[in-house]
Amino acid sequence: MGAKDPLSTEGVSRRRFLGYVVAASTLTVAAPLGEGEAAAAVPSLPGPAEIYDLNDMLTHAALPTANLITIRLDSDGTASFALPRAEVGQGITTSSAMLIAEELDLPLEKIHVTLADARPELLFNQITGGSNTTISTYTPIRVAAAVARGRLLKAAALELGEALGTLTAKAGVIVSTVTGKSLTYGELAAKAASMTTGQVAVTLKEPADFKVIGTARRRIDALEAVTGRKKFAMDVRVPDALPTMVCRPPTINGTVREVANLDAVRAMPGITDIVRVSSGVAVRGRTFGQCIDAVRALEVTWGPGTAEDASDESIRAELRRAELPLPGLDLLTKSVDARFTFHFASNSALETNCAVADVREDSAEIWASLKSPIVAQEEIALRLGLPVSAVKVHVTEGGGSFGRKLFHDAAGEAAEISRAMGKPVRLMWHRTDDFRQGRTHPMSTSRVRATYALGQVLTYDQRHTSVATDFGHGVGEIITAEAARLPVGDLTFSETIFTLTQQTPYRFGVATQLLSETDKRFNTGSMRNIYSPNVRCAQELVVDELAKRMGKDPYQFRRSFLKDERARAVLDKVAEAGEWGRSMPAGTAQGIALHPEYHAYVAVLAEIDCRPETTGREIPDAYTGPRVMKVVCAVDVGLAVNPRGLQAQMMGGIMDGIAITLSSGLHLTDGHFQEGSWDNYFYTRQWNTPPELEIIVMPPTTETPGGAGELAVAGAMAAVACAYGRATGKMPTTFPLNHADPLHFEPLPTSPPIPASPVDGLNRAF
Amino acid sequence: MPEHTFILNGESVTVDIEDDVRLLWVLRDVLGVTGPKYGCGLGVCQACTSHINGKAFNPCSVPVKDLRPTDEVTTIEGLPATVGSELHPMQEAWLEYDVAQCGYCQPGQIMTAVAKVRQAREEGREISEADLDEIRNVCRCGTYHRIREAIVAGAKKY
């Protein structure tokens, strides 16, 4: 947030901040990107000297815009802003444009928001994660926009020769209320520019005066998306960056021992280069189709992987051994005891891991969707032996993330390959590799014990045990990223993340929730909402069980134990709108659950149909199973900047919650995952989408926005699991629910590692 | 190298490329038409869905040699021209319902939607819930509900 003006009086000061006018030929304004507000999602920061030493300070102090975000006004009347975050579908370019539109009094369509290149001077302030973007940028962006507006008004006053107080700004035009004369922002952009950089105090608008913030707006990039013009990493034109793919091992992280036919494969049609790299054998060619053929033709002898022979069963046993003990049980109290298993899941986006790299002798240029671009830049520089300043990292639009893009797996690999080949490369992972060798949400168990007596819950203890989650992306900057990799460092980091995110929103006496992690052999990472969906699902199922044992209705039980009024309000809202308790046929049921996180609350009511006529419904080439027929969701994020965008995030989170509860998991067998396509990994498809879906955005409860990107996943997972438990009369304990079934698909071979594309497309046209 | 000729978005194109290269790569890597996206290369995710002679198909699953010089391939880039306007009504519905999130799957979703509506009409009816349930296109952002709303609304526009 911007520094508060010490001169301002109490009351006004809450909205008074310092921004900057930056020396430039057209009006350019700035605000410091804050430190304080990111605290919730940026736990356990190392001391300042560890992350930012004197040398850095001297270097960056010389930059006029160090640690600032800037907005530029141009003579065509538009404002431009490079957002130091990754847009991967969340809608943050739109909400950021809305913040500018509000304080600048400029129509939304005149604001261009692009994604900033990696800016190492921003340190940990260029990470997109923890649902933190809007929380951390809400004030700085508005401060910069308000500085611009003030500067334009002053320029207009000079130009028109009128008193500042007689001028009003509206829709990009400044009008004199006395003479009626007007000037557009475009006409004023150069005149309002400054020769020098200086501080300016501004007062932000009162929430009561908001005309843009809090109103439902459509995405600013929607037209690009529906016309196919939106450019993702693989659509960026970089001269000579030919398609490149890697032949990967049959087991997780296996290594190349020997390649028998390098020369023969190099001679295949279209193939230009082939090199051994740390992750496998890279091929470059005229088309990706020819790369696929080459990968399939390679005869490689592979060394063992990091998890050779591991299976779901062996990991489950390992998790059991690593579980932290529960406190002793008082024999006089009754208890609910349960242990839940959550299998490996994939955070693979529809856009597979991919990046363009052009590595030269003394420089490198990277194009990729990156949520932690500074870490990518610094690690790639280290790997290539180049100074950080010689590595340019461009953040492209991302085709989904779900945690994947916190890492730069493809960008690092592309840099290595480009250096080895001495040519630019357009590296893309095959879908099958993306599931089998890509990062996963680690398998975990949750052991829960709750004791109760005389209508009260006395204790609640939860021991979550998980295969280690890789937080190697740190908090956006290499030194914290390295700290997360130290043997002790990342244990603290994981435990800190767990502790700062997991809550028990109910008055359950003495409540403890602890994390224990084990086994670092897998490629893991945060999947949307990290630990919360599993931890929350386990807790809400136990809540249902407690209610049942104590003879209470699940909704009323929750209501009476909730700590927070905002939580109770969203719960009441879904109970009312979703007609909680309505009579339903046997084999169908409602489930209700609540989730607090990111200074926000969500409640979800789900109705599920587990009757044979539904679970056995026939849809061509589809995995069906139980169907969630209706979801009602109420969300309170404090202040919703864009309620329409918030609804979209809730819908997406609900589809994720449905999938991880019912159908989407990975099967680990003999050191590799069986799933290799979207017809194996059953993410929600149209046939499993709830026909009825209602998202209710609560009126503002605070003056600042909370986080929204991940919030709904945990609430939806828990509500669907509770509904399933109530429909079948048995509390589910293994997720996804279909995991123990015989495989619903024929696994693709592991050698060759990727399948050939079909040839019967014309026969399947419709 | 063999030559292959077909009509792409209204214009005849000829490419020099091996027979078995799938059309998706001819479009993206050779011709620079990037609206159709790669999501699996297995005919599963439907992100590359385009039209051939008005029918929806997956270019990732068609060797270029299977195309005839008279075959009309339409990608998302060429969809508006099929109705002679700046945007196809289905694209307008997509905007109205603010369907897209990351947008990666949406060109394929729209091309499927247009074909589904046409297919239902050829059977003498409007698109139904059962038709919507059959759509295979993956949207990993989970925009399915808005896709359903937009298809039903879009179909009423033409």
Report on the structure:
The complex is a heterodimer of chains A (about 775) and B (about 160). Chain A is of the alpha+beta class and about 775 residues long. Chain A has 20 helices and 31 strands. Chain A has 3 domains: about 210 residues, Aldehyde oxidase/xanthine dehydrogenase, molybdopterin binding domain (Aldehyde Oxidoreductase, domain 4); about 150 residues, Aldehyde Oxidoreductase, domain 4; about 325 residues, Aldehyde Oxidoreductase, domain 4 (2-Layer Sandwich), CATH 3.30.365.10. In chain A, strand 22 and strand 23 form a beta hairpin. In chain A, helix 3 packs parallel to helix 4. The two termini of chain A are about 55 Å apart. By secondary structure, chain B is of the alpha+beta class. Chain B folds into 2 domains: about 80 residues, Beta-grasp domain (Ubiquitin-like (UB roll), Roll); about 80 residues, DNA polymerase, domain 1 (Orthogonal Bundle). Chain B is globular, with a radius of gyration of 15 Å. The model of chain B has no long low-confidence stretch (mean pLDDT about 100). Classes of the chains: A alpha+beta (about 775), B alpha+beta (about 160). At the A-B interface, helix 6, helix 8 and helix 19 of A face helix 1, strand 4, helix 2, helix 3 and helix 4 of B.
Layout of helices and strands:
The complex is a heterodimer of chains A (766) and B (158).
Chain A: E1 16-22, E2 28-32, H1 48-51, H2 54-61, E3 68-73, E4 79-83, H3 92-104, E5 111-115, H4 133-160, E6 167-170, E7 173-176, E8 182-184, H5 185-188, E9 198-203, H6 222-227, E10 242-247, E11 255-259, H7 262-266, E12 271-277, E13 280-285, H8 288-297, E14 300-303, H9 312-322, E15 334-342, E16 345-346, E17 354-359, E18 364-368, H10 373-384, E19 391-395, H11 409-421, E20 425-428, H12 431-436, E21 440-441, E22 444-453, E23 456-467, H13 478-485, H14 489-501, E24 510-518, H15 532-549, H16 554-561, H17 565-577, E25 588-597, E26 600-609, H18 612-615, E27 627-636, H19 643-662, E28 668-669, E29 672-673, E30 692-697, H20 711-728, E31 734-735
Parallel strand pairs in A: 4-5, 10-20, 15-31, 18-19, 23-24, 27-30
Antiparallel strand pairs in A: 1-2, 1-9, 2-3, 3-4, 6-7, 7-8, 10-13, 11-14, 12-13, 15-22, 16-21, 17-18, 17-20, 22-23, 25-26, 26-27, 28-29
Chain B: E1 3-8, E2 11-16, H1 23-30, E3 50-52, E4 55-57, E5 72-74, H2 89-96, H3 106-122, H4 129-133, H5 144-155
Parallel strand pairs in B: 1-5
Antiparallel strand pairs in B: 1-2, 3-4, 3-5
Helix pairs in contact in B: 2-5
